[in-house]
Amino acid sequence: MAVVEFKGKKFEVDEDGFLQRFDDWNPEWVEYVKESEGIKELTDNHQKVIEFLQDYYKKNGIAPMVRILSKVTGFKLKEIYELFPSGPGKGACKMAGLPKPTGCV
Amino acid sequence: MAKHKTPLLDQLESGPWPSFVSDIKQECDSRAKNAKGVDYQIPADCPDDLLGVLEMSYVDGETHWKHGGIVGVFGYGGGVIGRYCDQPQMFPGVAHFHTVRVNQPSGLYYKTDFLRQLCDLWELRGSGLTNMHGSTGDIVLLGTTTPQLEEIFFELTHNMNNDLGGSGSNLRTPSCCLGQSRCEFACIDTQQLCYDLTNTYQDELHRPAFPYKFKFKIDGCPNGCVAAIARSDFSIIGTWRDEIRIDQKVVAAYAGGEIKPNAGAHAGRDWGKFDIQKEVVERCPSGCIRYEGGKLEINNKECVRCMHCINTMPRALRIGNDRGASILCGAKAPILDGPQMSSLLVPFIKAEEPYSEIKEVIENIWDWWMEEGKNRERLGETMKRLSFQKLLDVTNIKADARHVREPRHNPYIFWKEEEVTGGWKREIADYRKKHQK
């Protein structure tokens, strides 16, 4: 597994650039990932999505369905893609430090 | 010279069927030679390493691809299937081996210009290996690296005016039989409908918003040449509702042996002289055909449009003129709760541009399933869990005898409260006035 270093912090990641451990997440991670996810400036809206994903994951042990993400944050799917160009899975979940989405993707 | 020894795979080069091993080796040689001087953007020996890792799997009897993989292009949530080898040091050429799904034209008709352009792109930026086509219908570009994904996507869209197909929990790439392009059985223009639905629902195809995957397939008639009834959540199957057109002169030609039955499909064996009584009349599932005095009659009111007589005598019998389609829902593979074929929802619907009636059914189903479907629950499973009646309610379709093969045999029947005189609110005390404890 590769280890990346950013602003003095170390992160262990897989080939797709997902954090290996949710507990390794910190705000520097978001700074580090945003460029590769096509995000120039982090806004409060980005934060809102990331925080919700993390809360949901801590409470439920899984990522929320897209429908729930939209409902709770109030962002339509289109707006989520405007915030995270690679979408809620590859973009937002990766930045939030959640495990890589699995299944027939 | 081959990069890896592949004694097991080499055995698959013998025999009459086109050998995928010989073909891959040919591509290995072509890339090694590089006669066109291509500046390969991924390792030139990628297909060699693919053979190497495959040989290893043949020896071990185990796959050597790591679990999963999440890659893609900006703007889309699907279209690319990421994949990494679990022995990257041994097989660096396939350390990344992502699959790109490219949306195919309806009916899979091509010009060599298009295929050449696609091959040039894939030779430069991919492994040179493909799957023509994936089971869902996509052109499958088999094996490339992450940095090439946006490059491929740029060229596909800007130079070839072509898009990616679908993957993930969304609408997958729709597909159809070749329909009216070269089949006299086609009751609807399957290609046009497929193209229209694909364009109409681009958002649903590229950005996963569903509880799980969802597929459209369109068959021009009940023969099911794209297997819509088994391999799509929303199966559209062409049919007609008036009469089968009979040309008695041609029936006589079949009877006289001038025309081969089933267009000669059984010519490889001597089945004796064609016998309309035995091979058509007695095979009709509803027994609604009569052949007397050299005249064929069909009681169309009893015909279930199974296609058998038309398939057997295609030059004498033709589909009716009042054409449309049936819509069936819920087909899926076994996981999780067992395999399903689609169940009849709309017995007959007109299928004419702009297909508003069909789209209304689709969108009503999506509205319901997107709200009620559980995480990774196919439509067929939602139907099982919440009932067929619920599907009828949300699509505003009245229950009809054609919705069942047979009525239920158990008496666990739910009633709506408003259907029952007096409703559900009862006082036990009132009951006790007439019935002692």
Short description, anyone?
Chain A is mainly alpha-helical and 105 residues long.
Describe, in plain words, how this protein is organized in 3D.
The complex is a heterodimer of chains A (105) and B (437). By secondary structure, chain A is mostly helical. Chain A has 5 helices and 2 strands; from the N terminus they run ββααααα. Chain A has helices at residues 27-34, 44-60, 66-73, 77-83, 87-96, and strands at residues 2-6, 9-13. A two-stranded antiparallel ribbon of chain A has the order 1-2. Chain B is α+β, with helices and mostly antiparallel strands and 437 residues long. Chain B is built from 15 helices and 13 strands. In chain B, strand 6 (216-219), helix 8 and strand 7 (234-240) form a beta-alpha-beta unit. In chain B, helix 2 packs antiparallel against helix 3 (46-60). The N and C termini of chain B lie far apart (94 Å). The mean pLDDT of chain B is 98. The interface between A and B is medium-sized, with 24 and 31 residues.
Going by helix content, strand content and strand pairing, the class of chain A is: mainly alpha
| Number of helical elements of chain A | 5
Number of DSSP-assigned strands of chain A? 2
Give the overall silhouette of chain A: globular
| Number of DSSP helical runs of chain B | 15
